[in-house]
Design goal:
Elements lengths: L3 E6 L13 E5 L1 E3 L3 E3 L2 E4 L1 E3 L7 E3 L10 E11 L4 E10 L3 E6 L8 E7 L5 E7 L2 E7 L4 E5 L5 E3 L5 E7 L2 E6 L5 E6 L13 E5 L7 E7 L2 E6 L2 E8 L2 E9 L4 E9 L2 E6 L2 E5 L4 E3 L16 E5 L2 E6 L20 E6 L4 E6 L3 E8 L4 E7 L8 E4 L3 E2 L2 E2 L2 E5 L9 E10 L4 E6 L2 E6 L4 E11 L3 E6 L6 E10 L1
Antiparallel strand pairs: 1-43, 2-37, 3-4, 5-34, 6-7, 8-9, 9-10, 10-11, 12-13, 13-14, 14-15, 16-17, 17-18, 18-19, 20-21, 21-22, 22-23, 24-25, 25-26, 26-27, 28-29, 29-30, 30-31, 32-33, 33-34, 35-36, 37-42, 38-41, 38-43, 39-40, 39-42
Amino acid sequence: MKEKKRIEIDNFNNFNSLDKIYTEKFYNFLPTNKLHSSQGIATAKFPKMYTDLTEEELGIDDLDINSVCGVSYFKMYFPDSQNTQHRILIYGDDNKVYINQLFSGSPMLLWLFNLQFNSPPVSLSYKTDDTDSVILTSSDKMVVWHTNYSPYEIEDVPIITSMCMNDEVLFCTIKNPAFKIWYATNLDAENVGQVSAESGYISLEDDLGYSRKILTFNEDIYVFRDYGISKINYIKNDITVSQIYLSNTQIYTDTVSICGNVIMFMTKDGIYSFNGVKVTKTDVDIRSLLPNTNEHTAASSLGQKYYLALRLNFNDNKSILCETGDYVNNALVIIDVTDYSYEIIRGVDIKSLLPVKTELFEKMLVTFNTMNTSKLGQIVDTSSCFDASLPKYWESSDLTNNFNTKLFTKLSIQASENVKFNFIYDDKSISFTTYKDGLNEFCFKILCKEIKLEISSNETQASVDKVVIDYYEY
């Protein structure tokens, strides 16, 4: 027997290695130099007033709906009163649009001017001549709402799938034919679908596929296509288009979102960033968890964080929260674009995400495909999904760096109470659970050539600071 050796794991970040130890799999833990509980989801709440920051939830339970199918946020400035109103729109499965004015002291949701849509509307807010306006467009109609006026409907317009504005020109992608980009000068939405001196269309018929999402980034206009990115240069009806990027796999355009100084998006083989010049594949390596298709992905951004709802295959025969029944998505990946560290929240079936930013708070709102469909949620620091704690898991690669026989004898841990440590070796396993906060020590004898470590907890707040394993090598 040789001298006693020691394995110290004091960094759980999956981008770092220590004697070839790295993270194999994790969820509902945030892996940094410590293991922390991930973020979670709670019922969305908003301050009552500017002067009263007590938060309360919206009166969704008072509505005759079974599902929140969509949510929008915008603000309107009223020049006469010099007042800005923040508004939340809820679209229910009854096809009605409900509105709440934030900071009004009332959680009531009122049916907005008897508006109904056949599907969740796409929204765009903009300003002209100090007047705020919002466009709501769905599969059956377009509605325009200017400050101080009632919303009005516009008929005979194409079904718009995304919108952006640049230098007082409105640009839209449409459902059919999806290779056309419509534009209207002076932000006049009524001109979309009409060829005139103030409006027209651009046809993008090439090997990049259909146009799915258009946005303004660094004062330029980019179109995300099925298999690439195009750039539109528009100067007083003089239009040129250039191909910026060709993808080998399909881009999930509902994942396209501006985050900090990059545009983030996902394809069938990973997560990418685009800085306006170059597309780079990120170090967020979830390829082994990706299924063949992810048609119901959705993403949004808040600050420097990119939130991606999707379906992942964890391949462990476990059913976490939403996975116990029928589900569409089962995970939320949250990426910090400053260093591309990330966490995975498992067990949540998120349908859509919406960032809300006011002078007093910032929130990421979420709606759901299954379970909790009648609720409006928000991302919070507590590692639970409403009242259910999120089960936490972290798994190492093989702890050994050769195939020599080793005798493992002691485990020392700095961790919170009720965290389980499970050694897997030679088709066997042995487990230990921390019995207090702080230093926990366990003695044992394991003779093996390969061994890996699993860490898990069902506690809402769980943490692991340092793991020390003593062994002898033969």
